[in-house]
Amino acid sequence: MDIKEIIKPENLVYQKSEVLNDDIMHYCPGCSHGVVHKILAELIEEMGLQEKTIGIAPVGCAVFAYNYIDIDWQEAAHGRAPAVATGVARVNPDNFVFTYQGDGDLASIGAAEIMHACNRGENILVVFINNGIYGMTGGQMAPTTLEGMVTATTPYGRNVDLNGYPMKITNLIAQLPGTSYVTRQAVHTAATARKCKRSLKKAIQNVLDKKGTSFVEVVSTCNSGWKMSPVEANNWMEENMIPYYPLGDLKDSVKGEHSEN
């Protein structure tokens, strides 16, 4: 039997959002970026926001989001996405504006920008991909790199006496009065991906309702940087990353209320 008779288009389960274009993704096999892109595209389509959405893409693997999600995009310098998003959102108050950032970008060079944007309560969504490493530039230590974790710049493992402690920046963000919704999710299983989609939808709605900054961390893998297979990376994340960065909501309130988490 011809293979084309076995695999017919009408029998395929996968359906692609119209907001996700046909470009072949360049991300490494097992990377979380593609899953998060798919979720964002689905939500933008389902909520009817394609013509109202402006994404801010900074430096890092996250910058290539503009290749795949068919919306208006603005590039930003390394770490400066929240500052750029602030200007874009204030000039276009009726649009949905979000940043898409990695941990090296957001928690290191962009630490000042993210803290002050969240403290001001800018009406933006921040999507924060945390894989504990600088994925694009060679696998260097990031602020979120775990203690003992081997990277290109910590070949013997992160030493807190030399390098400080892994930064739980999402916990810090949750303390700021300008944030309305702060959560930590993952996308490595179907169940976690569904939970992440629900969280992102809530975060988007908060932005549309002018409730202040919503912040969604996605604990992720970087199997290339970690020198692991996709399966090994998922297992390592479950055993090491998620215990240190536990999943769930850290803050869910209206603008102006402080979190106790």
TrEMBL record:
Instruction: Indicate the segments forming the Thiamine pyrophosphate enzyme TPP-binding domain, all copies.
Output: 67-218
Q: Does the keyword Magnesium apply?
A: no
Instruction: Print the keywords alphabetically.
Output: Oxidoreductase
Asked whether the UniProt record includes Transferase among its keywords, one would answer: no
Q: Which Pfam families match?
A: TPP_enzyme_C (PF02775)
Q: Which domain of life is it from?
A: Bacteria
- GO MF: oxidoreductase activity, acting on the aldehyde or oxo group of donors, iron-sulfur protein as acceptor; thiamine pyrophosphate binding
The record's Gene Ontology biological-process terms are: cellular respiration; small molecule metabolic process
State the PANTHER family in the record. 2-OXOGLUTARATE OXIDOREDUCTASE SUBUNIT KORB-RELATED (PTHR48084), SUBUNIT OF PYRUVATE:FLAVODOXIN OXIDOREDUCTASE (PTHR48084:SF3)
This protein is called what? 2-oxoglutarate oxidoreductase
Organism for this UniProt entry: Draconibacterium sediminis
